[in-house]
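Protein folds are increasingly written down as discrete tokens. With that in mind, we are printing a sequence and the tokens encoding its fold.
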Amino acid sequence: MKSCGVSLATAAAAFGDEGKKMAAGKESCESKEGSSCLTAEEREALGGLDSRVFGFVRLHEDGARTKTLLGKAVRCYESLILKAEGKVESDFFCQLGHFNLLLEDYPKALSAYQRYYSLQTDYWKNAAFLYGLGLVYFYYNAFHWAIKAFQEVLYVDPSFCRAKEIHLRLGLMFKVNTDYESSLKHFQLALIDCNPCTLSSVEIQFHIAHLYETQRKYHSAKEAYEQLLQTENLPAQVKAIVLQQLGWMHHNVDLLGDKATKESYAIQYLQKSLEADPNSGQSWYFLGRCYSSIGKVQDAFISYRQSIDKSEASADTWCSIGVLYQQQNQPMDALQAYICAVQLDHGHAAAWMDLGTLYESCSQPQDAIKCYLNATRSKSCNNSSTLAGRIKFLQAQLCNLPQGSLQNKTKLLPSIEEAWSLPIPAELTSRQGAMNTAQQAYKAHHSNTEPVLGLSQIPLSQQSLPVHMITSNQVDGQSSPAKKKRTSSPTKNSSENWNRTVPLTPVQQQVHSWYLTPQKLQHLEQLRANRDNLNAAQKLILEQLESQFVLMQQVRHIAEISTGLHKGQSSHLAGPNDEQPPFSAGPAQYLQAASTAIQKQTGLQTLPSNSVTQGAALNHLSSHIPTSGGQQGITFTKEGKPSGNRSLVPEISRHVGDKPNGSASLKGLSNHVQQLMAEPVCSPNHGDSTSPNVQISDNPQVSALLVGKPSDSGDSGACDKVSNFHSTICTKTNNSFASSPSSVISTATPSPKSTEQTVTHSVPSLNSPHSRLHTLNGEGLENSQSSIKTDLPIISQKSGSHVIPSMSVSIYSSSSEVLKACRNLGKNGLSNSHILLDKCPPPRPPTSPYPPLPKDKLNPPTPSIYLENKRDAFFPPLHQFCTNPKNPVTVIRGLAGALKLDLGLFSTKTLVEANNEHTVEVRTQLLQPADENWDPTGTKKIWRCESNRSHTTIAKYAQYQASSFQESLREENEKRTQPKEYSDTESISSDSSGRRRKGPFKTIKFGTNIDLSDDKKWKLQLHELTKLPAFVRVVSAGNLLSHLGHTVLGMNTVQLYMKVPGSRTPGHQENNNFCSVNINIGPGDCEWFVVPEDYWGVLNDFCEKNNLNFLMSSWWPNLEDLYEANVPVYRFIQRPGDLVWINAGTVHWVQAVGWCNNIAWNVGPLTACQYKLAVERYEWNKLQSVKSVVPMVHLSWNMARNIKVSDPRLFEMIKYCLLKILKQCQTLREALTTAGKEIIWHGRTNDEPAHYCSICEVEVFDLLFVTNESNSQKTYIVHCQDCARKTSGTLDNFVVLEQYRMEDLIQVYDQFTLAPSLSSSS
């Protein structure tokens, strides 16, 4: 790599000279710069420290020496970087990022990593860098970017030593993002790995069980929880939380038995949970709910009181107490409890609704309306329409009342404004002892924390304490424990109240304790103006507010000095109407600045949560996930303590009505995730995404050098730093000539007559703060000035190579040259199983084509061919037209008539006669207009397109199809006598349906994926399809899928679809981007929506924005979103007898207009474009941990055996794939031989399918790792090398089976040469 300043070699020599000067006691080392110099021993110690030891090296207690060393190294590096004016080699910034990460100085770590990225063109080869970057993103809740970084680590180095930790964190993030399938896969991958990890195996098993519960798979969850309880030596905290979840499930889930039995089991489980952890406020709360449901009022009340003693700041508990009082006809006590709930959590919709119901029952409709309005403003409210109707009813009642009647009527309850300052019920306030104990524990826990921005200089009694640490004698009189949090009545300035609070579950996430809202500032001014007339309690409040104000000013001043404040940074704190908090920096900035010392604990760092109470969230984080009973939360926490001393601190979840949603809390992952409003902090890939504020450095000059800007550069928002960092990565790769995997495949190996182009041209991101830092061949554009010589330390990382080496062989090398080049690579056990070039970065979705299409081009006409006779169907230009990449879709009209196809063979009647018991997969869906997709309530358009899967037979589905048709005829006859209205089956405009608000929707059943591969059962049907032209046939020599050598159902076999109107095939690309053929049998039509392959990256972004997995989820695009993003959409009707050709990579979704059957299969034209897109998707699937249905490695070798290729581009791509796999096979053989592992010949049988790893589902070629047990039983459960090593580090439990002789592979490789071009078109 070219140096962008002082070379490492020069640095090493200079550093050695510096060491001699130190030994001689030179005066230079006594200076400030000299004091930062590192000795040879210190450099040796630092050599083993990078991101891979994060969480596994202690910097406190016995690790103080390491912390001191890291601090010294950071000072040394920063000093030397300043001296060199930033012109140092990129590796220094990477190491600086690692050291800051280990010191848990995340802003500086992020800045250093950014600088490394901007200087290092092949940054993606450095797995430790990507891992460190992912940890920083994870810390800032930027899940979108953290997921990308972690996936790239696993892609470039599947055997990465922290792969288990990555899988764990990916599982947690996907769980938060509601991508449960991906979450489960990563948790399972973490579970099989025997390497160390932040969580224990039983804690990961708990997450898996809770994942089932979250998905409402209650029987699976119950079984997993019960199996976990059978574990020997189960830690008490894990046992307590498992029993808690089992108890809550039995209380809340009807499927688990009758009410009496369920409640009995629930109480037993919760009592056992409290035996394991008597201090769990959550379990006490759940127990109270159970007692309340069976009428044991006194027991319920005692349990609630215990819950408050154990965890004070629980709006749920207070709400439930209110319900209990209301049921006992104690409205005043109920009112006080509800007020406590909404003071603790302004967005607690259930409490507001219950409070409104209470006021309504006491004939106080005005107060009831105010409460209902507050409930509707809450983002947790899930029945806004019902409340809106109730509000209108009450308002109508008020209008009909005689004027003045309300004023003259005696009120049973105080108004909402008066109730806001009422004391809580007296019997619940005797908590002095318990709270003093909690306060002492808090002091003891943080006794060694460093003074932070003057916080420790304020007497504890005068500090604004976290809500759950406030003692009763610190509250004005007998006021609510939430009184410190409120600043005004919820009905006064209600918009401001709602805008400044972010309702979260299970714990109310509030602004930092010293952060003053406008209402608090106003209150402060009022108290100051009346200072002489205040009573003792008011004077105490004034002192606290003044202390908070001084502290806030200090933090704000420091924050403004350190870094510019970005206006968009705290938009995630805005209210429903996007109003911003009073300070642009937002509480996150202050939290980061003022809470660093409190947060710094052993091992992993706890996440700062934007607008989170100090006590509630500094020591743990909340990852809010819906679970049984509705929108619930699970809190995962981990103290910075040795693993043997972990505790699971329960938190309270929000509840709806009087049914709280079960929550589980698990301490275990300290650097934890916290989801705001069910979304990660950073929205993916959008300019308005928000991210935590990041302070670059205490030294403005170092800050400027780290980000590559002058120190007076002005604003540089953290949102840019976090979001745009990765968007510049995307720009950097996607706009380069060699950005896509296959473009590199096709161009990276020059022919002997050509010269390889190695310069990567990048287009700077327009909104990137680093747009001028893009590099050419690793050399910064800003480095045109002469380098400044300085003494730079070199630290060689000694814990194994984490930068992937490259190998200089080309496709024109012979097999012997390839094997010679590989000869010594296997000795280091290197594993890199992807097909792509060593120099190719991990695949990324394409950016939207530029320039964008004008709006009038977004509905292009669909390419259509009309056939009149058989000759037209076999005319060669038809094949060329269909496979032309410029045509994403082609409709061949009249094909059945031209070829005289007997489509009746595929009619429902014939199918029933042929095989009436044949299996049909059924998808239960909602009947909706074709161009829209609404949520089940019909209130808003969404992308998620859910359907439930079941199975039936052809005969039963045929009966349903016929009855559906008869029912429709009856409805049609009834409507003839009525005014014309749109039916749900008609495609009506978005405008008209938007006004009508569709729903509730009718349920329909779609018969899909009916396998017609058996040529004995379906002989007549399959023979009829041989009449088709060769390029669309199921089997043909020019079809790549015909060379697989085995069946892939639905791809190289025919599948049938039986439809009723509204049946939907959701948005997707075909497996591995192969082309597809679809023929409508009739009698009804189908409507198709098609988007060109170039735009799949845009749709992927929309899926991520909507918490959907582009590859695995069911989604139906919102056309308005696509048109706004300048995405063209082809839209057309497929009539009976029409064939639709979907070209490689085209995105499409389909809805039946009438009753019809369709048949479909995939084909692979022998073109460079098809192979390129197939390989790209193969690699993208690997990055996303998704199985590739088409085994591209296996297919490539079969193509080399069977096909003569004359297209130079296609030949080069296939040859390179062979080269890569040959290299991998040889390298792995040598590694196994070196390790003394025997390779056993196994061979292959005819038609034997390709093999996939049974754990991670990647394709396994040639060398199969099979467990000894599986081998002896001849079941041959295959593992890839990486999963085998994770399961058994020395492979003692595995045998290695060989399927191909190396001589055979060499022969195929050498004999695969470029065939001469044919003079005539095929």
Observations:
- The two ends are 47 Å apart (CA to CA).
- The chain is about 40% helix and 10% strand.
